[in-house]
Amino acid sequence: MNYLELPKIDLHCHLDGSLRPQTVIDLAKEWDIEIPSSNVDEIKDMMVAPESCPNLQEYLARFSLPVKVMQTEMSLERISFELFEDAARENVKYLEVRFAPQLHTQDGLNYQQIIESVVRGMKKAEDKYDIKGNYILSAVRFLPADTINDVIDAGIPFIGHGVAAFDLAGNEDDGFCEKYVSHAQYAKEKGYRITIHAGEQGCGQNVLDAIELLGAERIGHGVAIQSHDSAYDRVREDLVGLETCPSSNVQTKAVDELREHPLIDFYQDNLAITINTDNRTVSNTTMTKEVEKVMEMFKLSMDDYKIIYRSSVEQSFASDEVKQHLLTFIESA
């Protein structure tokens, strides 16, 4: 099977975890930003997480260097364009990218400028390549919550025009959802779809809370539902999409090794699973690699892949028109 040529959909990809190492060097030079090296291999080593991290925090440490160069409109536009370009070149037909505008205000940009910049980069890639996309605005749990509604407000003009959803990301404490009920409700009232990082390093109860308290339509990762019957049943009954990220989950020790990943059990039990990269650079991966790993490890057929692809279309936050467009690719695959 030619995995590169397969049409692919990625619903869980972080902008600041997917920069080209050379771009970090270029932008640091252009904006006179001090970075530890100008050698691309050394910079890449700083951006790629080990295959096995002791915890999620060790994995998240790889984001600090990229964020340093993501503080101007031109930088954000370029980085956004390049991510969509890289994805298009491996036949990703639809890409949802999440990022936290709160992280990009260090040089004085406001939230609207930040959001507009990444959407502009995405639109340029859509014009040049056969790819469609949307942005998801993430609030990170380690930052003050009192600016979240400001981010939501800044994104409202872009809903339906490059922005689709609201997300919570970052290190996961048990019971975190209660703190963000008002923010998620506010986002829904303003027209955002909802996807929440839960059940990655935290407990399965977090997944259930994300659905019941925050209105999550999709769950980022969700691995922990395998040991929480109520969360598992709710995900299955409500067809809540699971954004599985195989390589990342092994790196952060959400699972010990790929062969133990519960995604295959989820799939066989008709849960709505999708396959995603999480962070192309930090996890040193592509959608092609992720699909190949899953297909080969679990002996999935082309028919299986078509089911997963169609599930990705259904679970996406794309417009109905774009969804119909995406389905045409798998029909001829």
UniProtKB/TrEMBL annotation:
Binding site for substrate: H14, D16, G170
GO biological process terms, semicolon-separated: adenosine catabolic process; hypoxanthine salvage; inosine biosynthetic process; nucleotide metabolic process; purine ribonucleoside monophosphate biosynthetic process
Cofactor, free-text remark: Binds 1 zinc ion per subunit.
Keyword Metal-binding recorded: yes
Reactions listed under catalytic activity: adenosine + H2O + H(+) = inosine + NH4(+); 2'-deoxyadenosine + H2O + H(+) = 2'-deoxyinosine + NH4(+)
GO cellular component: cytosol
Binding-site residues for Zn(2+), renumbered to this chain: H12, H14, H197, D278
Gene3D superfamilies named in the record: Metal-dependent hydrolases
InterPro entries associated with the record: A_deaminase, A_deaminase_dom, Ado/ade_deaminase, Metal_Hydrolase
Enzyme Commission no: 3.5.4.4
Keywords (A to Z) from UniProt: Hydrolase, Metal-binding, Nucleotide metabolism, Zinc
Gene Ontology MF term list: 2'-deoxyadenosine deaminase activity; adenosine deaminase activity; zinc ion binding
Domain Adenosine deaminase per the UniProt entry, residue ranges: 7-330
Keyword Zinc appears in the UniProt entry: yes
Feature type site, description Important for catalytic activity: H221
Similarity comment: family membership: Belongs to the metallo-dependent hydrolases superfamily. Adenosine and AMP deaminases family. Adenosine deaminase subfamily.
Function: Catalyzes the hydrolytic deamination of adenosine and 2-deoxyadenosine.
PANTHER family (alphabetical): ADENOSINE DEAMINASE
Protein name: Adenosine deaminase
This protein's encoding gene: add
